[in-house]
Automatic annotation (TrEMBL):
Belongs to the UPP synthase family. InterPro entries: UPP_synth-like, UPP_synth-like_CS, UPP_synth-like_sf. It comes from Cupriavidus necator (strain ATCC 17699 / DSM 428 / KCTC 22496 / NCIMB 10442 / H16 / Stanier 337). SUPFAM superfamilies: Undecaprenyl diphosphate synthase (SSF64005). CDD domains: Cis_IPPS (cd00475). This is Isoprenyl transferase. PANTHER family: DEHYDRODOLICHYL DIPHOSPHATE SYNTHASE 2, DEHYDRODOLICHYL DIPHOSPHATE SYNTHASE FAMILY MEMBER. PROSITE patterns: UPP_SYNTHASE (PS01066). The keyword Cell inner membrane does not apply.
Length: 256
């Protein structure tokens, strides 16, 4: 797997980030501010997803990962959860057709066993249909949790080699079992809605991502807001433990 040690090479931030991961937060508050039911915010949130997928593809992003439903979101009122499930189902039916036409590959990561058989089937169909596409890879994190991901990766690792010597377990042994092993780690993490936390998103993979927080509620996040996040990213200096001077004269020392 070529992507495992993505903290070894320092990507040039003057380029568009290769992998953007977003916590799409603030749908409920967007709606409440307008005296609408919370779920109206989720519907508008789907419009924002469409806009950001399009803009990401147009700007040359290779991987876009969207946190749609966390392993903790089942704690919400039953009617909001069932609305989100219906919206997810509708999106899988309608949006996938458009994505496929735009050469987008769709992946869904998370503990999918908890979804209805119908949703699980739609996910399998959508992934199969778009598997050969070579453009942007859009990953939807659904019933996803970073801790779940680490635990399922450990279980898979041990199931494959039950006699594994603990001393031999390094990053390259565990990482291939993570749900998103097909993607490099996110260069840029975005959270909308004003909260500044990770909320159990990609815990392993965000180790060295650049973090960007905005007060903009997700339904209002669009191509212009994405460009602001990219502009902020371009100002960053990614060092992965090195000093600034080493980045100017690479290869002098400390390549490990
Ligand atoms: C994010 O918006 C969408 C999901 C978690 C599904 P929220 O629904 O969390 O919106 P706020 O944070 O309550 O405003
Ligand atoms: C995080 O949003 C999960 C998603 C965006 C799907 P939440 O709004 O559920 O996060 P917390 O619980 O407030 O941190
Ligand atoms: Mg929220």
């Amino acid at each position: 797997m070529q992507h495992i040690s993505s903290t070894l090479d320092v990507p040039d931030t003057s380029y568009v980030p290769r992998h953007v991961a977003i916590i799409m937060d603030g749908n409920g508050r967007w709606a409440t501010q307008r005296h609408l039911p919370r779920v109206a915010g989720h519907t508008r949130g789907l419009d924002a997803v469409r806009a950001v997928v399009e803009a990401s593809a147009a700007r040359g992003v290779q991987f876009l990962t969207l946190f749609a439903f966390s392993s903790e979101n089942w704690r919400r009122p039953a009617d909001e959860v069932s609305f989100l499930m219906r919206l997810f189902m509708m999106a899988l039916r309608r949006e996938v057709v458009k994505m496929h036409a735009n050469n987008i590959r769709l992946r869904v990561v998370g503990d999918l066993a908890r979804f209805s058989p119908r949703i699980q089937q739609l996910i399998r169909d959508a992934e199969a249909r778009t598997a050969g596409n070579t453009g942007l890879t859009v990953t939807i994190a659904a019933n996803y949790g970073g801790r779940w991901d680490l635990l399922q990766a450990m279980r898979k690792m041990l199931a494959r080699s039950p006699m594994l010597d603990p001393a031999s377990i390094d990053e390259s042994v565990l990482a291939p079992h993570l749900a998103m092993a097909y993607a490099p780690e996110p260069d840029l993490f975005i959270r909308t809605g004003g909260e500044q936390r990770i909320s159990n998103f990609l815990l392993w993979q965000l180790a060295y991502s650049e973090l960007y927080f905005t007060d903009v509620f997700w339904p209002d996040f669009d191509a212009a807001e994405l460009d602001k996040a990219f502009a902020s990213y371009r100002q960053r200096e990614r060092r992965f433990g090195r000093t600034s001077a080493q980045l100017v004269a690479p290869g002098l020392s400390g390549t490990a």
